[in-house]
Design a protein that fits this description.
The protein has about 180 residues and is mostly helical. The protein has 8 helices and no strands. The two termini are about 15 Å apart. The model has no long low-confidence stretch (mean pLDDT about 85).
Length: about 180
């Protein structure tokens, strides 16, 4: 996989924004069929973590995840099917996600300094491993802009940005792994 150029990223984002409601629904349905576990994580678990801080930011996150799906499909081709993936690889990804999410869940008892350090490490690791920095930067700007419209959203910025990093990293890993086993 290659880093998307500015032009490729722009074209993929334009593609995502140009879709009508029926096309969006088909893409989401296909994603939920092809990548059941990933879809449940991205549209179920992640937004729930963000919603603990702010529901508006959780809704924005889901919209941005749709954009990520579209960007990857437009730039790198059809979404790999979960059926074609190595079950051990999927389990390993799930275990890594679980450990990373523990630091983001506010209902889990954890010293705040430790929680903050784990979140910073997670964010840095996501930055180091993501590889699509143009997409990450675009998403961060969108999150910052949306949060700036209402001060109650601001506390959820860091969590939302961390989650979108994780989504982009997961898509990179998914497409890279699918290419490696093909």
């Amino acid at each position: 996989m290659h880093e998307l150029t500015e032009r490729e990223l722009y074209q993929a984002l334009e593609y995502a924004k140009s879709l009508d409601e029926n096309a969006e629904r088909r893409i989401l349905e296909q994603f939920q069929l092809e990548q059941i576990a990933l879809a449940q994580t991205i549209f179920g678990i992640f937004p729930a973590v963000i919603a603990e801080q702010n529901q508006d930011m959780a809704n924005l996150f889901m919209d941005l995840c749709f954009d990520v799906i579209c960007v990857y499909q437009k730039a790198f081709g059809p979404l790999p099917s979960q059926k074609d993936m190595d079950l051990d690889w999927l389990e390993k990804q799930a275990m890594l996600l679980d450990a990373e999410l523990q630091s983001l869940m506010t209902d889990k008892h954890m010293d705040e300094k430790i929680r903050e350090k784990l979140q910073d490490l997670l964010r840095q690791r996501s930055l180091d491993e993501t590889g699509q920095m143009g997409l990450v930067n675009f998403m961060n700007v969108a999150i910052d802009d949306f949060a700036s419209e209402n001060p109650v959203r601001v506390p959820a910025i860091k969590t939302t940005q961390t989650m979108i990093f994780m989504v982009i990293r997961l898509f990179n890993e998914l497409y890279s792994h699918a290419a490696a086993i093909s």
